[in-house]
Design a protein that fits this description.
The protein has 379 residues and is an alpha/beta fold. Helix content is 41%, strand content 14%. The structure holds pyridoxal-5'-phosphate.
Length: 379
């Protein structure tokens, strides 16, 4: 059976360059980068190269990158660190109401256990986020603003650049964190224009392996390690570096960096094609606005529970998701915040693309959904 992988917001297939880099580090450059001999040096050079590539992609200095095990670790580090280093007197944290669990849960814990007040900003009546709403929530008691760039369930693009620059102008001491996991290598994510003190990114969303992420930390920003031990990553993230995964991350970024615009245009074409096909199916509602990231399309197939349709499609070799992969089917509340009714939220499907998808995938999916509507509803 031909497979149609349309769940790239959950994870992507590692690209050949990334796999080759991983294998090279497993079989040849397997030394410990902290070792003082040649084998150690070869491993260190692999990690250095990856760090240089990722820094160049973000437009930052190499010493501003900390490799982590995943973006979840990066967000935990940014948020907990900021609370510890800057949050003794200022106790308010501003965030969007649609953040990924890796931000939401940390903020909930800071609220429950450490007395922080969390202000969650909702979108305005049109369903879009406005920078002004974040700015007007800020005050002298605010320690941090944490905001994702692209929502992982619907693809909504949040105005991070505008929000952070307005906030930094009025409140330069407020620390800014951007979860750029679904934006990195799809949109230009540049530290300077973003006005971010922290940026979290992940390898496995961009055709690198799972188990590797990074945190950008602006050089004058205070940071505390989550993991204590050796002196790796400037003493900020102890533990022997996973050089194969770091090299795999760097290789994927190196491969993708020059094709951001080209891939964006291609995926946008696929997205438009799918929107058109879905508009011909009775009752299907598209939740993602036209302004959303073309990489993610959230739809509602009324009357059919997400999991039922997901497994129906799976039997035809088509892989999509029922919202956020991390919530494992549990409702996140994000579709409702973006305008779905409670009932509709049970019937959400998330389709997410990579530049490896083709029109055949679109045809298979729209035919699959149409068949599901006939067979499941009338069973
Ligand atoms: N933030 C967003 C927006 C995500 O989509 C994800 C993963 O789905 C994460 C953070 C967490 O990334 P990781 O799987 O690398 O921990």
């Amino acid at each position: 059976m031909t497979e149609h992988y349309l769940d790239n917001a959950a994870t992507t297939k590692p690209c050949t360059a990334s796999v080759n880099a991983v294998m090279r580090c497993f079989s040849e450059h397997y030394g410990n980068p902290s070792s003082l001999h040649r084998a150690g040096l070869a491993a260190q050079q692999e990690a250095d190269h990856a760090r240089a590539v990722i820094s160049a992609a973000l437009g930052c200095e190499t010493r501003e990158i900390i490799f982590t095990s995943c973006a979840t670790e990066s967000t935990n580090m940014a948020l907990r660190s900021t609370a510890a280093a800057y949050g003794r007197k200022r106790k308010k944290i501003i965030t969007s109401a649609v953040e990924h669990a890796s931000v939401k849960k940390v903020l909930a814990s800071l609220s429950e256990n450490e007395g922080f007040e969390i202000a969650e900003i909702k979108p305005c009546e049109t369903g879009e986020y406005r920078a002004e709403d974040f700015l007007s929530a800020c005050d002298d008691n605010t320690v941090m603003v944490s905001m994702m760039m692209v929502n992982n369930e619907t693809g909504h693009v949040l105005p991070v650049m505008r929000t952070f620059s307005m906030i930094k102008k009025k409140y330069p001491h407020i620390i800014t964190h951007c979860d750029a996991v679904q934006a990195f290598m799809k949109y230009p994510v540049k530290v300077r224009s973003l006005c971010a003190d922290f940026i979290s990114i992940s390898g496995h969303k961009i055709h690198a392996p799972k188990g590797i992420g990074a945190l950008y930390v602006r050089k004058s920003t205070k940071i505390r390690p989550l993991i204590l031990g050796g002196k790796q990553e400037n003493g900020l993230r102890a533990g022997t570096e996973s050089v194969p995964l770091i090299a795999g991350f760097g290789a994927a970024v190196e491969e993708l960096a020059s094709t951001i615009d080209k891939r964006f245009e291609y995926v946008k074409k696929l997205n438009t094609e799918l929107r058109k096909k879905l508009s011909e199916l009775e009752g299907v509602r598209i939740l993602s606005p036209e302004s959303a990231s073309p990489y993610i399309l959230s739809i509602i197939v009324p009357g059919i529970r997400s999991e039922i349709m997901l497994h129906y499609l799976e039997a035809r070799g088509i892989y999509v998701s029922s919202g956020s992969a991390c919530s494992k089917g549990a409702g996140s509340g994000v579709p409702e915040i973006f305008g779905a009714s409670q009932k509709e939220a049970d019937s959400v499907l998330r389709i997410s693309f990579s530049a490896e998808n083709t029109s055949e995938d679109i045809d298979a999916l729209s035919e699959g959904i149409a068949a599901g509507q006939r067979e499941i509803i009338h069973k």
